[in-house]
Amino acid sequence: MTYCVALRVNAGIVMLADTRTNAGMDNISRFRKLFTYEVPGERAIGLMMSGNLSITQGVKTVLSRSIKQSESDANIETILNCDSMFRAAQIVGDAMATMQGKYRDTIEMQGAAADATLLFAGQRKGGKPRLYLIYSAGNFIEATAETPYFQIGEHKYGKPILDRIIVPETSIEECVKAACVSMDSTLRSNLSVGMPLDLAVIKTDEYCFSTQMRIEADDEAFANISQSWSAALRKGFEDLPSFVD
Fold it and tell me: Cis link prior to 241 (omega < 30° from 0)?
């Protein structure tokens, strides 16, 4: 399974993903699910993936191949040279639709699920930070002020903290903490989500990644957040008023 979360607030974008995939309890592997693309000073883009691994890897390959080909042919439109983040999301959606059209029937005939979802976020110069949730069919929706974050994969355990904390005015630092708490809650409750984690941060109007890092299982900063959050929950629970005598 997977857990990926992306937050888009006024201050920028935070993306956090785990790396565990599994096809049964005895077949667990690690695959990167967060990929970044950057033209420093012009645009920064992040892509996160959940669902059928062959489909999502195929989407990434289609995007990367187009970027490579555009180096020698300026007429090829890619997520790094198109004129808006909306158009970039359409390009990703088209790649998803192509992979689904080519392989979905065959995959399902073998008894496997072909569904996949993507989180696509970033900012290009002249535009605002954008965050999109792209479905298997290639269609997508955009995050708004009312819904400033998206999750894919095993999302239910990490949702309550986001609902309580994240608003457009939340700072990048607070978003990173909230994403880490959301991930920690999921790690504790679902064995199909696992370390290490990948974190990426884009600050508004900087058009580059201010943070890109791999968080390993022994990371001290993440452990401190996990332990502090557990202690705060225990203290909050103990301080609750009695409901019955």
Answer: no
Query: pLDDT digits over 181-234, tens only?
Result: 999 999 999 888 999 999 999 999 999 999 999 999 999 999 999 999 999 999
Q: What is the DSSP string of 63-102?
A: HHHHHHHHTT-TTS--TTTSS-HHHHHHHHHHHHHHHHHH
pLDDT digits (tens, 9 = 90+) for 63-111: 999 999 999 999 999 999 999 999 999 999 999 999 999 999 999 999 9
Output the six-digit token pair for 74. 């300026």
116, β-bridge pairs: 51
Task: Tell me the β-bridge partners of 214.
Answer: 198
Q: In terms of C-beta density within 10 A (0-12 exposed, 13-18 middle, 19 or more buried), how is residue 82 classed?
A: middle
Q: Give the residue carrying structure tokens 């609902």.
A: 163
Tell me how far CA of residue 172 lies from CA of 71, 79, 80, 145, in angstroms: 34, 25, 24, 15
pTM for the full model?
0.96
Residues 122 and 92: their CA atoms lie apart, in Å, by: 13
3-class secondary structure, 181:
helix
**Residue 24 is encoded by which pair of tokens?**
């049964």
Spatial contact of 122 and 202, defined as CB atoms under 8 Å apart? yes
CA pair distance 147, 233, nearest whole angstrom: 25
99, 121, 89: which is closest to 4 by C-alpha?
A: 121
